Amino acid sequence: MNTVKSNKLSILPQWKNFEIDNNKCNMGGFTYPVLQSADILLHQADIVPTGEDQLMHIHFARDLAYTFNKKYGQTFKLPEAMILESPLARLKSLRNPSKKMSKSDMDQLSFIGLIDSDKEITKKIKKSVTDSIQNVYYSSDRPGLKNLLNILFFFKNHKNPHSSILKPEVEKFNFKNKVHLKNEITECLITELSPIRNKYFELLNDSAYLENVLQQGAIRAESQCVLFYNYIKSCVGL
Question: Would you indicate the residue range of the signal peptide (predicted)?
């Protein structure tokens, strides 16, 4: 914590457009990125899968590691970000395709949840925003439709490692209109997500199994980190 300056924290995404004062911010939230960095650095991660909107957090972790290494000697690895090169790296809101899809969005119709019911999925896709053009084709000038096509193409091709996901091959689906497209997406999402939803509720009802997984994970994490943690303490004279 002593290697972190407040100005480094204040430029991170969650505070970028946020007035930091005693009335609006607590130190737990303000310094949380330090804890995120610790999770990366303590496990000596080389590569961190992340989204474009979280890239600054990886830069922050690298900066923290560099500062520590410069002061106390070579200790931490400098992690690299791994970002999926695809339009699907950040899906757009179903209700406002100018912003990313987020489960924290106040509009519950704006995102697809992994445990949404078939009825909820159907309603969300039906209510998704497109445009007034009836023909279906892939274009950046049609962000709502482009977002839906990206979703469909991913779920149709995610099991094929050799499939290109940079631009959907719309013509092979031969959509009659947008209603046809939305019906296809709905059917596809229900087929792909229902096993996930069913497994989720199955595990949720097995508290003994979940408790065992948590305990085993904690033991494994501690065994991997305790020696390195003690080494870090010795570096700073503790």
Answer: none
